[in-house]
Structures are given as C-alpha cells and as structure tokens.
C-alpha cells in the first residue's frame, strides 16, 4: 500500500509537467490519422491520391482536412506546380516534420514488440 | 518533382511496415486518454479518485472503461486489498507499462519543443 511515487522533489509537479508536455504533442499529433499521414509523407508519398491509397481507410474529405491541419502546424507544405498543365499539387513534409522521425520509430518499435507479445500469449 | 522516396530496397514495403507497426501501437495507446492515464499510473497515482483528479477532464465512466481496456492489454493490474475494511482498490502499472517510459519521454520532449516553437512564432 505504499504510494509508489517517484523519488523526485515533487512528484505531483513532475507528473503534471509530463502530462502537459504529452498533451501539447497529442494536440498536434493525436487522433486516428495524423501520424499515419506523416509516415506516408516522410516515406516519399506526395500526391493526394498516393496518400489516400497509402493511408488505408481514410476518406478524401478527412485526408484533405487533416492535411490542412498539418499545414497550419508547420508539418506539411502544399506546393502547386502551376508551370505545368494540368497543375500538379504536392504535399511535402517540412524539416519540422522530420523531427518526428524518432518518435515514429519509437512508437513503431513498441508496436512491433506488442504484436509479438500478443501472438505469443494467444 | 522527383519522388523523394527513401533510398531503400522497396520504399513501399518499408512504408507499409512502418504504418502497420504504428497502427499496432495506436490500437492500444491511441485515443484521448490512454497515454495520459499511463503517465499518471507510472508517476505513482494508484487510486481511482487520484487518477481522475490527475487526468484532468476525464469522467468516471470513461476512466473506468479505459482502465479495463488497459488491464486487458496487460498494462494495468487491478488489486483489491480485501484484508482491510473498507476494501481499497489500487491500479498498478505492470512491468509491461514501464516499457512505455521511453515513448512517453520522446513524445513529451517533442511536445515541449513544439510549444516553444509556437510561442516564438506568435
């Protein structure tokens, strides 16, 4: 029945700080699609149709709205090539989006381990 | 207009693998609350009321259902201390939940950086 609070100066403050930081991250990256879209973008898919095919299950309406939200947060740059006809629009990951590579890799590694763990226990 | 696909053997397969791994992780950790509850648990909050106070905004009904889901996935152990009266119930993070510490830390670090970036640009 001991409180297993971490041996830090003030565990309540530490916990609140961690929660706030993770909430800030989830505010931008949370939800069903955003991280998946970022993975597809970082992997080199730049056209709307390619992205929709890669991020299985996403509708055009939702993909469009998620791309706008990612653009507002500085993670995607929308580029329209008006010099060619028909005009081609590309969605490119910004340098800032590249800072998510480590997070994606840690999350993916955990997912792989979790899948192994489940398949062993079944 | 070059496809900026990564120089790997088969970028499509690599991207699909990453997407699948991240989806496996998000299946367990996705949504608004699960990671926040895990942070509170790892920080040492073990009682239902403590958890509800710490994870701001969560309702008792949702907290209860999220704790059950985390228990099914082996991340939380529910312990009822029947030897004392009134019976006290604790929710303890499992060793498996501790494997999420790195992920929480990477996500939190990104959140902190993102907040700084936003406050500079405003």
List the keywords:
10% strand, 2 strands, homodimer, two-stranded antiparallel ribbon, mainly alpha, 122 residues, 60% helix
Radius of gyration of chain A: 19 Å
The DSSP helix count of chain A reads 6
Described by strand count, sense and barrel closure, the largest sheet of chain A is: 2 strands, antiparallel
The H/E string of chain A reads HHHHEEHH
Let me know the average pLDDT of chain A. Answer: 89
From the N-terminal CA to the C-terminal CA of chain A, the straight-line distance is 32 Å
- Beta percentage of chain A is 5-15%
What would your notes on this structure say?
The structure is a homodimer of 122-residue chains. Chain A is mainly alpha-helical. Chain A has helices at residues 11-29, 34-42, 48-54, 60-72, 95-98, 101-121; strands at residues 76-81, 88-93. In chain A, 60% of the residues lie in helices and 10% in strands. A two-stranded antiparallel ribbon of chain A has the order 1-2. Chain A is globular, with a radius of gyration of 19 Å. Chains A and B meet through helix 1, helix 2, strand 2 and helix 6 of A and helix 1, helix 2, strand 2 and helix 6 of B.
């Amino acid at each position: 029945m001991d409180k297993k609070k971490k041996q830090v100066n003030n565990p309540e403050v530490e916990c609140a700080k961690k929660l706030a930081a993770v909430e800030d991250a989830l505010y931008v990256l949370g939800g069903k699609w955003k991280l998946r879209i970022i993975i597809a973008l970082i992997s080199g898919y730049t056209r709307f149709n390619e992205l929709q095919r890669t991020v299985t299950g996403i509708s055009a309406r939702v993909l469009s709205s998620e791309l706008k939200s990612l653009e507002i947060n500085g993670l995607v740059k929308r580029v329209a090539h008006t010099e060619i006809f028909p005009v081609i629009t590309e969605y490119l990951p910004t340098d800032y989006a590249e800072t998510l590579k480590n997070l994606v890799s840690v999350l993916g590694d955990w997912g792989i381990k979790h899948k192994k763990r489940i398949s062993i226990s079944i």
